[in-house]
Every structure is written in C-alpha cells, then in structure tokens.
Amino acid sequence: MPTLAPLEERLQGLTTGKADELLERFLSYVAEIGLELYPAQEEAILELFEGNHVILATPTGSGKSLVATALIFRALANGGRAFYTCPIKALVNEKFFQLIAAFGPKSVGLMTGDATVNSDAPIICCTAEIAASMALRAGLDSGIDALVMDEFHYYGDRDRGVAWHVPLLLLARTHFLLMSATLGDVTPFLQRLEALTKRKATLVENKHRPVPLDFTYSEEPMHEAVKNLVEKGKAPVYVVCFTQRACAEEAQNLMSENYTSKEDKKKILEELEDFRFDSPYGKDVARFVKHGIGLHHAGLLPKYRLLVERLAQKGLLRVICGTDTLGVGVNIPIRTVLFTKLCKFDGEKVVLLSVREFQQIAGRAGRKGFDVQGSVVAQAPEHMIENIKIDAKKQSDPKKYKNLQRAKPPTKGFVPWDRSVFERLSTGKPEDLVPRFNVTHGMMVDLLDNPTTGKHGGFGALLGLIDKAHIADREKKRQKKHATVLFRALRRAGLVELVAREGKRGKVALVSSNLQRDFSLHHALALWLVDFIPVLKSPPKIETAASTEAQAAPAEAPAAEAPAVEAPPVEAAPAKAAEPIDEDRRYALDVLSAVEAILENPRAILERQVDKLKGDKIAELKAAGVEYEDRMKELEKVDYPKPNAELVYQTFETFVTYHPWAGLENIRPKSIAREMVEHAASFDEYIREYDLVRLEGVFLRYLSDVVKTLEQTVPEDHKTDELDEIIAFLRQEVRSTDSSLLDEWEDRAYGQARARRRDEAPVLPPRLADDPKAVLVRVRRELHRLVKALSAKDWEGALAAVRKTDGQTAKTFEEWMKPFFAEHSVLHCFSDARKAEHTTMKVTGPATWDAWQTLVDPEGNNDWAIEAEVDLSADVDDASPIILVRKIDQS
How many domains does the chain have? Predict the structure, then answer.
C-alpha cells in the first residue's frame, strides 16, 4: 500500500466525529511534526473543535497556518469540504503544496482562475474571488463547509475587498476562520458572523511574537547596509522594492559583493542540476541565483518564483530582492526586512505606506524555527543619505568643500519620510477595515445562475444581498439603482431571459440557456464585447469624417468621463506577410482583438511596442533623407497597434449612450495576443522581439487572461473553428511556457503510486496521447512553427522546432528546401498557409501518428509537403517538440 500523509492516515477509521477524539488525533499530528502549541493556537483550535467561528489576530510567524489545518481536519472528519482562500496566486500555490504534505495529493485541489488542479478534492486552495463566485452561484449548496480566509485584511481593499465581503453575507452554514496579523477593531465581524450563522464567534488575539523584532532606521548607502547586515549574521535579507524594475536593478547592484560561501554556491548548483532556465530572462535569473541572490515578483514566470522560494527555504539565498507581494504571506524564511522606501504608488498616486502595509511586510522578518531575533530596517531617502555625506565633508574641511551643493529630493514619484514616519509605522495600530462592495455584471450573472435563489429569482437575491452588505443605507440605495441598470442591460443583450415558473404565477430571470456553462462577465466591459462580436460578422463601413474625428482623442479618456469615439492616429505595425486574410480568419482575429480591448493595458508591453515602432520609423525616415525636425514630428504620431480602432470607438460610444454606467470604464484596443497569433510567434520569440525579458510573468499572465476571456466570455455560438484554433494555440503557449504548478502536483500525486510494488498496476498522470484533439492542436502548432522557420530560411530554427534524431542537422533542412526555393520565390507561412486543410494526420498505432503539412507557394501549386511522425508512447513534456520530420519533398 502507498504511504499515507500524516493527517490522511489520521482520518482513517474514525469511529465518531466527537471533538475529543478529533482533537486527540490532531494533537498527535502536532507532536509528530515536532511542534508545541502557543497559547493562542491552542485557544483557537479548541474553539474551532467546539464548532465556533474564530477570528485569529496574531502576528506573522505565530502559527496561524496550523490553526487553519485544524479546521480543515475537523471538516473532513465530519464528511465536509474545506476551502482555503488567499489573496495572491503565489500564496495559493504554497498552501496547496503544504496541505498536500499534510493530507495527501488526492485530497487537495487548486483553483485560481489561471489553473485548476484536482477540482473535486475535499480540500480546495483558491483565490478569494473563486470562493465568492461559488457562494454567489450556489449559496448554501456551494459545498463550502469550512472556509479559511487568510490575509483577511484584504476585506478593506479598494478593488478586491468585495471577494472577502460576499462569503460573509451568504454562507450561513459555513464554519469560518478569518486570519490576519493586522485587522484593527474586529467587533463588527464577530457580530455579523453570529447573526449570519447563529453560532458563536470568538476573537483570539495575541500581540506577542514568537520571534521578537528590532527596528533600525538606516542612513548608510544601500550596498553598505546590505553588506553590514550579512556580515552581522542578519541574512537572509529581504530587500523590499515597490516596482519590478527596482527589484532587478537592486539585484544587479548587489552582484558586486559576494554574500554566499563556496559551500552554499555548490549546493545551489546541485539544486539547479535539473532546472531549466529556458526562457529569455532565465539566464539573468540563473546568474542572480547562482550568486546567492533571489528575485521574487509578479514579472517572473511562476517556476522562477517557486525556485527562489525553494532555495530560500533551504537557507541557500542570502539576499532576496522582492516586491511587497512577498509580504502577503509566502512562507520564505527571512531574518531581516529592508525597506528601500517608505512610499509607493497606490494605483493613483504616490503615498506613504499605511501602518497595515508596513507591518504586514515587516512581519516577514524572523521566523520560528529559523531565528531567535528578526530585524526591520528602513533606508532614509537617498538624497538625505547623500546629504549626510556632504555635510560630513563640509564639516571636515569647510574651505575645501564650501562649494559642494546638497542633493535635492526627487521631483516626481516621491513622498518624503524621515525617522519619525518610520517610528509611527513601526508602533502604530493598523487602521480599521472599511467595507468594499460594488455590484458588477459578473456578480449578477453568478446569482442568476444560482438555482436556489427562491421565488424572486437571482435579481431578487441580488437586492437581498445588497440589503445584507456591510455598507451605509445611502450606499445600498445607490447600489440597488446601479443593479437595476445592469439587469436591464443584460436583458437587452439577450444574456438573461425571463422564464415562466412551472405551476406558479410570474416569471423568473435566468441566464440564457444558449450560453456555455462557465460563461463569465467578470470583466467590466464584457457586455460591450458580447454586443460587439455580432458586428464583426458584417462590419459597417467607417466614414472618412468619423475616422478623422477618431484620430483626435486621447488614447484613454479619464476614468470618470464617458469614452469618446475618437482615437489617436495609429501607426500600423510593419507588415511581415503580404498575404490576404480570408473571412473566417479575419473574423477570428477580430474577436481576439475585441477581447484584448476589454482587458487592462499591460502598459510596459505597449511601451515596448511603441519603442520598436519608433525605432523602425526612424530608420525608415533616415533612409528616405527626412530632416530631423520632420522625423520628430512623424514620431509623435506613432502609437501601438489598435486593430479596428475606429469601429471599436464608435460602437463603444453608442454602447455608452444606452449603458451610461459603462462610461466609468474605457475601451482599450491593442494588439498583443493578435500580433503573436498573426505571426505565429512563440512566447520566447515575442519576448525577444520586444525585449520583454523582465516582464515574462506579466506577459504570461496577460496571455492567460486572454485565453480565459476567450473561453468564458465569448458566447459559444459565436465561436468558430478558426477561433477555437487560436484559443488552442494561445492555451498551449501558456501551458508550454510554464507548467511548473501542474507538474509538481502530478509528481506528488503519482510519484508515490509509481513507487509501489512492481506487480501492481502503476498509476500515471493523464497522457497527451489520450486526447486526440490536443495532439492535433499541438502537432499543427509545431508544424506551423517549422514552416515559419523554413520560410525565413532559418535552418537552425527549423532544427529547434522538431524532435531531434541522429544525423539530422540544420544543413539537412537547407538541403531539403533547396529545390523548393529554386522553383518558388517565397514560402507562405501565415494566413492561408495555416488553414486546417493543409494539415493531415493518420493514426498508425495506440500512441503514434503520421502527419503531413502542405507547403503553400505563391503560384498555388502546393505540391510540396513535410512528412513527419509523432510517437507519444513515451513520456513527453510540454516544452519539447513531438514531431519528427522524415522528409520534405514534392508529391
């Protein structure tokens, strides 16, 4: 029999669900892992096992996760299902694997919106938004018997707080554990929980930290501060930066010092032995890590963040440069937290950190089991540190340095702070949480999709939800009025229908039966998208006057104003293929562009697009002999590509006329995923094209959002084969770029089963070969990439696009293609060349196929083809090619 996880084993053979027996078994687990409960932990666990709700307000590092594990154990022992919610995906991932270690891989699943693993498991780790959506869609039947809401202070977050708010309004049968180190006054939450569930709610708080902190205000240069901390034995040092660029710059600056011993560097190399730094930014990440310096921010691919977390947990990284997301709760042992600044951009302006923000991050310092003392250091502003040095010089030799000027503070992106601000943040009490609640289309669709909403249906349930919300009466009236406007908009769009109730009077509003099961309107402008897609099947002609007007407005109107039809002049991207696009392909690409138009702008990527276009334009103008001043005027017209801009702006203006609430948002046409699809660019190729190496995580997350919106927000009856192919292409690019999370779960889930006795049937993860459609999509994708390389006469690229075989080199492909290019001037690789009819596959065995790809020539003869084979009888990974080319010749 396979070895059971410790709590999985303790769930076996339970005779009763009595608190005493469950507590005894759980405490035996605590003893087995070598822990001794703190008083606050013990009090919280006893309250939970008595069936009471608990609000746990204890410092970071005081063992809140163990209390959460106790609630989950109790829920499973009583035949229930437990959910553990976190605010960020990195923390969800970490809790996912922690709970696997305790309960076993078959018992734990994950849902983040980007990834879903083992979703039917009795324990689910998810973002708060997932739990809120489930509560709206199913209410008391959501199957959430126990709910751990970690980092509960996000309840007061301006943009996301509603996700922490909703479960407290709907889940009357759920057992709650709310946890945070920085909650403020929790009296209202205790009262609301008791009123909702009719069971006792208890506050367990303790300000005592298992590992005490010391606080220092540093007035020495950054590199000296880090060096001194490491030399004093205060590493690992977490250097807090508030932008991803600053993280990379600080890491680079610290490369000049040696913080890691030869022994630890050797251990790091051993840990990296099988790790693939195969993305464009991978070389830089590897260089930092091998030097003992970690990076951790959302711009990195998940696999690099997981690597940094793993190496840090093994004590091999002396310095980690990270954004404040690491302060949200990712379990990395940090001895010292070093703030580079005490101000940050909050989404609207630069402000000083709040007491809560500062203490959440500072609380990362000093972890039980690793340290006896933690340290928090804040750097003085750089100009003040420089002035201290200048003043010292003047004092040492007034005559020599009399003309030395004092440094001035930055004029932009800066709010001043000093020692008194640091002391206030260190000792202050966290601000009270302010409730956030706003009705959205997504919330309404979720409620309308809930079959248990009663005689008044989903809209009546929404009004009832607003009545329960923790907001003022005046705000409730405003939200109800807003809800009515949104409901009418959904009715006009045909997304909601009124259905007669069987055997009863009146009608009830339901989500249209024509929509896919997971249809979602969680993007604010999703309703415009649904309205706009039918227009793409027969787009109206745009009048010249309208087009002229459309080029006069700013790219994005202020959020408070209704967006205008106008758009700035658009400089089209250089054409990389002059082939016509057929109507099916055009429609699919235009739907993709429409989806991109409702997503947030990844500004850093768009800025790189503009930079490249400007560089290309300058080269073109210089070659044409255009004068400097005229070149500069032309450059002012350059903007990132905006497909169908005039049509998008005009239809959105009309949409806003009928839906005034939409004026609070703005339409944002752009071409990132579309450009990638049009040019059949891989993730790595696009990264290199626009020098996005430090933004790989941002780009991956954007592509994930595109795929999710295409799948869930575009109605099923508007999807075509061409659009399905685009979705499959983008989904596979996301998956093949970084599948670290799913790979690690599969390894844990199936690794034990593989190690069983040889005479038992092995348990294996799902195979690609078992999904013929997925095989076809992947083969077509790889063949198209090969054709693209052949078209460019990139023989090394062609070799890299296929599975390696003995004797096959780049020269092999060059020789194969010589006769083709002797007959034809060009090999088409876009548009018509990518049609499904040009790819043929034939099954030759249980996990083998033959494949042929027609090569499309300008004359239309199309009598050349690639002949390949696919063998999936052995394990394959997501990144390596699966096609093996036998020959390329004329048929």
Answer: 5
